[in-house]
Amino acid sequence: MIRLTYISSIGKQATAKDIRAIGAVSEENNERDGLTGVLLCFRGVFYQIIEGEEASLYRCFDRIKADPRHRDLFVLNVEKDIPERMYTQWKMKTVFLDSEEYPLVMPIRNLLDSLTQTHRVLKQYAPYEVLDGLQNGEDPLAWEFKREELIVLFSDIISFTAITEKINLAEMQELLGAYFGIASEAIVKSGGRIAKLTGDGFMAYYPASQAASALQASLEIIRKLKKQRETTVSPFLKLAYCGIGLSAGSVVMGNIGADTRQDYTILGDVVNSASRLESYTREAGHSILFDDRFRNYLEKSPTIIPILQLGEQTLKGKSKTLTVYTVDNADVRFDRTPEEITREIREI
Ligand SMILES: Cc1cc2nc3c(=O)[nH]c(=O)nc-3n(C[C@H](O)[C@H](O)[C@H](O)COP(=O)(O)O)c2cc1C
To answer: Burial of 238 by CB count in 10 Å (0-12 exposed, 13-18 middle, 19+ buried)?
Structure first.
């Protein structure tokens, strides 16, 4: 038997009558399916605990997940191999905690509020793999290193050091908000994931089969930044450029750090190459660069994006020479050199 606990936001349209109807259907179905548990409703949030045999519980949970009367469902815990039930006499006890008068409900309300707040923050900061693992009832802290084939993408803002010397807080927030807004929309929409934010940049990754999507997203970021430079009134956004480096192949994914602090991250030569290529964009004069390994993956995922070979290059810190490529498109060529960007920033 397993016990599953999740929270979700009560849908805007779901009235108390609807929730009572959910309770009634649940009692009937759970009786049939051998499930027991409790459904708490409090300040727009459902907290549900369901227990029973794994197969029938997950069948029921699939229906629950697809139910439009709630959203943002997040599994908090899956207890496997539980020896006995906790809620033997409740097929699905539905409790409206907002209107409950019983004094013991007060600390429960407090705890639930804290849980929701912690979860809201965790969801924003924790790596996707960690959140996925929690959803599957795993303990991410116990994970060992594993190998994966991925597309890795690095991006950061050009001349950010010069920007930091001139910019005020509100302008910094505006600049980073605009850049990360454009980038994360393009990455997420195309099936990528942002693995790490690095102040003025980020690392993202895609499954190995999605090289074309990664390149398409890179182009979209460059084009949207260009459009923004042309339309904004902010002097810093007018000079907001970024470089993007892409590589692909086998990486190591896993927990790094010590007991005091851990991070779940991606490591390996592919990561270093993508990062070096990103830095090399300034010298190369093209805002998107990739290596032969990425190109090989690109050949397996059809795209109509024209590419251009720039030649052999030994990147900083690397022993081997790489063949460097870019997208053959005018938007991808920098229309200012990094020195010009820095000079203009200093003149703001
Ligand atoms: C928060 C929430 C909790 C639910 N809990 C259960 C449950 O424990 N058991 C159940 O069968 N359905 C539950 N449902 C309802 C299912 O989503 C689904 O509507 C129902 O199982 C369909 O039953 P039917 O096929 O008999 O119409 C829940 C729905 C919501 C929104």
So the answer is: middle
